[in-house]
Design a protein that fits this description.
The protein has 6 helices and 2 strands. The protein has about 180 residues and is mainly alpha-helical. It has a two-stranded antiparallel ribbon. The termini are far apart.
Length: about 180
């Protein structure tokens, strides 16, 4: 059996010294073997993975906000909400514009229902979905904080740009102006 370093070198395509008959055809190639489509060996790999604790029983407003944002992350779910804004609809009616199965649309609806964005009711044989606005209101309130920040920032930027475009008249204090030719001062 080969020593450990020789086995390692052989597995990774490195050229070992020895009789020429023992060399493989790899040793005659111009580029070293480890660079041909294989990743170089990783000798020291550090994985830093911290566990995330989640307690579903103590849902705070930020957790509800995260759930709402997660549900709105998918464009199909956003389109479904836009459709429900115009009125209640069944799964079949919601699935009509998409090239997906009723089961796939139903999965999207379960995500929206889990986030509290829709509710389902029962009317005889129908189970229409209804848009719930409260989570969207909470999201809008959260976004308003940032909207106010950016509006103030843009107003300050606008004021600064105006001062650059129209400098104050009269020059700086203490600066004398030359008399105009032919005129008296």
């Amino acid at each position: 059996m080969l020593p450990r370093t020789a086995r390692y070198a052989r597995c990774n395509g490195a050229v070992t010294r020895g009789p020429s008959s023992a060399r493989s055809s790899r040793s005659r190639r111009s580029a070293p073997a480890p660079l041909r489509g294989r990743r170089p060996p990783v000798l020291n790999r550090v994985v830093d993975n911290h566990p995330v604790e989640y307690d579903a029983g103590s849902m705070t407003s930020s957790d509800a906000l995260s759930t709402t944002l997660s549900a709105l992350a998918d464009p199909t779910r956003r389109h479904i909400l836009a459709r429900l804004a115009s009125g209640d609809a069944t799964v079949k009616e919601l699935a009509a514009p998409y090239e997906m199965s009723l089961a796939a649309v139903s999965k999207h609806l379960k995500v929206l229902e889990g986030a509290g964005l829709i509710t389902r009711s029962r009317e005889a044989q129908r189970r229409p979905c209804h848009l719930e606005a409260e989570p969207l209101r909470a999201l809008s309130d959260w976004l308003d904080e940032y909207r106010r920040f950016w509006e103030r920032s843009f107003e300050s930027l606008g004021d600064y740009v105006k001062t650059l475009q129209h400098p104050p008249r009269g020059g700086s204090p203490g600066r004398r102006t030359k008399p105009r030719p032919g005129g008296s001062r």
